[in-house]
Amino acid sequence: MTSSPPRPGRDSRIAQLPPRERILDAAEELFLSEGVRAVGVQAVAERANTTKTALYRHFATKDVLIEEWLRIVAAGYAAAFDRVEAEHRDDGRAQVLAVADFVAAGLPDIARRGCPFVNSIAGLLDPAHPARRLIGNHKAEQRRRLTAMCERAGAHDPDDASAEITFLLEGAQVSVQNGSVDRVGERLVAAVRGVLDRAAATA
């Protein structure tokens, strides 16, 4: 595949970043638009306005670059969980709904560019790939935190409640990407609220 054309204003913005950040920004642009398997390091280097030699000084291999990019993406989700826990301390229901709101707010971007984790897994065929392990660990930690929130929300079975909510969060991102459901964000938040109501009613 050929590299996507630069966006207006992007070149001046990226030029101000340090080399490592320029490379990561370029990798994100290309990985999301073309997939991790299709994009080579030469394309990333050109997009970052640098050389393959310079890229390899910061990232020993393409796999290391993929893993570091996904680590940054996962950290963004973890920070969102930190925020909702801090803003709604000890209020598990409010925390879960805030997570649903956060995911719903990001759905327009998912519709345009796809989910970084889903798209990357499709291109990482080796189950032992470090980036696949990173995604698995990230999802397991996110599920653990959701379960704790459901417990604070008074769910009779927090594990079941968090599993159902995880299905909803993940499914919403896939549905908005393939266009199979309308008003996805609105329906997502309503469905998560319904799970919480049922879980608490049986407590």
Write up what this structure looks like.
76% of the residues lie in helices and 0% in strands. It has helices at residues 10-15, 19-34, 41-47, 52-58, 62-87, 92-113, 116-123, 130-152, 158-178, 184-201. Helix 6 packs antiparallel against helix 8 (130-152).
Relative strand content = under 5%
Q: What is the distance, rounded to the nearest whole angstrom, between the alpha carbons of the first and last residues?
A: 54 Å
Q: Which regions are unreliable across 5 or more consecutive residues at pLDDT < 50?
A: 1-8
Number of helices: 10
Quaternary structure state of the chains depicted: single chain
Topology as H/E string? HHHHHHHHHH
Biggest sheet: strands, sense, closure? none
Helix content: over 70%
* CA-based shape: elongated
* Beta strands, count: 0
Rg over CA atoms: 19 Å
- Coarse structural class: mainly alpha
What's the average pLDDT? 90
